[in-house]
Each structure stands twice: as C-alpha cells, then as structure tokens.
Amino acid sequence: MDEVATKIIEILKKHMKEPRDDIGLQTALTDLKIESLDLAMIVFDIEDTFGIEIPYNANEDVEDFKTVGSVVERVKSLMADGPAAAKA
Amino acid sequence: MAKPNGARRVVVTGMGVVSPIGTTVDEFWAGMRASKSGVSAIEGFPPEDLKVLIAAQIKGFDHRARLRHFQRDKIIMHADRYSWFAAAAADEAVKMAGLNVPFDDPYRAACIIGSGAGGLVTFEKAYRDLFIENKRATHPLTLLRIIGSSASAHVGIEFGIKGPTFATCSACSTATHAIGVARDYIQHGMVDVAVCGASESVINYGTMKAWQALHVLSPEGIFPFSKKRNGTVLGEGAGILVLEELEHAKARGAKILCELVGYGMTSDAKDMVNPGIEGPREAMRLALEEAGIPGTEIEYLNAHGTATAINDENETNAIKDLYGKHAYNLAISSTKSMHGHPLGAGGGLEAVACIKAMEENWVPPTIGLDDPDPKCDLDYVPNVGRNLQVNYTMSNSFAFGGLNTALVFGPSPV
Is B386 helix (H, G, I), strand (E, B) or coil? Predict the structure, then answer.
C-alpha cells in the first residue's frame, strides 16, 4: 500500500469508535460504521493532510467514497490537479 | 394533591452545578461555606492588550472524566465547553433525582437548557482560523458547537428526552427563564419531568474586549453592595435542576428537595442598560403572588447582585419597594461575590444555592463586603454565611435589556 493509502487509513481509524486493523482498499466505508458527522471530520482531516479540497456535499450520495480505494484514487487525482483545480 | 386552584404542583428532585468554586453541588456548597472566591488571573489565552485581567474561570474541569460514561451522545467529547458544563451539571442532577436513563416516558419530559451566548469560544477560534491564520476552512463541528441550543440537544440525546427541547436566551436571566418555562410546562400538564437551567462559557479575548468596551467590568474583583464596588467579574459554569410534577415524584419514591412555588417575569421595556425599580419589583411581586405567601415568609433572598454601581442600588431599592419593613429582616446575599457572574447560567447556580440554603438552614454570604455602600443598607450577610431557619427563598435574575425574573422556592409538600 502506498503512502497516500496508508495515511488515509490512519485518518479513518482515528475517527472510528472501534478502530480495526483489517482495513484495505476494498473495504467499503459502510462497513466501517462511519456516520455522516464522522465523514465530515474525515474529509476535513484528509483535506488538511494532503492540502486539497474535496468537493463533497453531505446531502448527496458520493460515488467516490464507496470504498477506501475509491477515496484514495479521488485524493490522488485531486492532488494531481493541484489546488487551483480542486476549487472548481 | 393539586393546589387549591387546581394547578399541578412542581417540585425539585435533582440539581447539578459546575462553577468556579466547585464543579459539583457538594464542592460548590463547601466553597460557599468557606467564603471562597473563584476570581483569579485570566488563564488559557494570551491577554494581549486587555486591561481587565481577572475572571472567575473554572480550573481543572476534566470533561473526559466527567462525561466518559455518556452512552447515547456520541459527539459530546467534541462539543463546546459550554455544552460540557451543561452535560456535567445535568448528569449530576439526573443522578440525584434517581431517574432511569433513557427516561421512561420520553415524550412527557422536557429539556430546556439556555445559554446567553452559546459557543462563543468556538466562534472566536473559528474566526481566528479564518481571518488571522488564513485557514481554508473551519473545523467541521464549528456550527454544532456554536449554536445556542446545542447544550439542550446534547443533554436531551444522552438522557433520551423527546419532549420540548430548546434553549432560552435572555442574557443574565436565561437560566431563570428556562426554569420558569419548564415549570409552566409541568404545571400545565404538557410534561411531568424537566431538566432545565443554563450554561455559559464565554471567557475569551473577544468577550473580554466587548465587556471592557461597555465599561462594566472591574479590574480588581466583584464586591456586591460594597462602597468600593466598581463592576462585575465574568464567570462561567452551569446550573441545572430536575423539576417534576409532585405526584409523579411521589409515585416513584423520589426524594423531594423543595417545591418551586412561584415564578415571575417582567420586562422594563425602557432601556438596554439602565434598570428601573418597577420591573424587578413586579417580577418579585408576581413570584410571591403565585406562591400565595406574603413577603414576610421569605427568609433568604439570593440577589442578582452583579456589583455594578447601578444594579446593586437599584435592586436594593426594588427589594425595599416590595418588601417594605421586611426588607430589613431578609437575609440577602449575592453569591456572585464568590462564583463571579456566569451570565446566562447565573440563575441556575443561584437556584442551587437557594435550595441548599433551605436544605441546611444556612445562608451563604456576600464576600468582600467590609464597607457597604450607604445606599445599600440591607442585611447582605457580609463575608461569612450564617445559620438561619429557611423555609422560603427567592432568587432574582435581572438582565440587560431590562428582562427581570424571580423564583420562589418553598418546603417540600410531603
């Protein structure tokens, strides 16, 4: 697992009531019992950690956040776009 | 047994307090017994250019320890300090009342916990982050921490209260309004139990600057009714009561602390900062009238007593206007001399002081009162408390804007 994935999993564990050690890229976020407020804090932490802005609205179902792997991919693409693109 | 007019009777079965002189009812009361002052040099943030460098802050309050056992409210640990105070005080009050958690009949319970200003400390931090630190966003919980109803919501979630749940907001009368409204809901049959009071935690740079600009803070200390008084001292904390309909309390074998027999509220409708005599007098009179007792039955009066030049003289005059000669027989004290002025929470802390005074037949003092103002010539129980048979007490809360409230507590009917 690369550095981005490792850091994201660390952030997820930080916000879980009962952190697990078996989180992989295939793990669905729904399996982690993350609630909407936790998700807002996770997004905030990820943005701070990687210096990006994730376009995300708590009112919408977000395809990008289905699995840990999809979050990692989204973060990587936002990092590649650079801060300016993230604001769009 | 209802009152002669058919009204349901409302009793107090639990109380909780978090204050600068003690963070439980027992500690708070021991502080009063020891004439303790909660005022000290400001800590927790750089004072920068502040001229007033004292406050009555709560030191050593460990929210993690106090709220660790919370089961239902998952977010309390991330809440604003004012919500922590409310949660800790409510927890103590509910435990004292011996109520099951979650509440047995949740829609027949109310949770009315006010705050003068909500999460102001969070507010300031968020604005510092945005405007000074140039951070890209506020913390995701900023909004939930700030809103003035968050304390009532947190407490309602933890205890499973599903009836009327909201905050009151009336500056320094906030807690007393909350207790009064909760009392009305029980008396009128909407609910049987209520967790009510207020919480406040606003001591930060911006708040100090705002109060300083109004020129009502003392740089030296809080000395109600004294000749040397020169302003109030900001405090913080929470005071919460569990109110209950009398038969409901009896049916579950609860220990009844006292009865809330009267409540009065008025507004001066005159001036934001200059109080009148009439408004406070009428609030006290309405509370007595509802209690159905003459003023001579009141032995102890917990004054609003902020130690501003205007309030203490005006309150003294209002007391004289209502009580006549009995004003000179009343034991009156401003416990703010010890716990500072916790703004919206004041009436909550002071209700607890009144109930303890009845429980122990001992009235708390007004400390720092060696040389009274000649215009304040009543018995303010100077410097040390004293033994006194107390059957009825009155608690006054008067707020900026001329918003006046008074409560009367009497002996348990059983």
Answer: strand
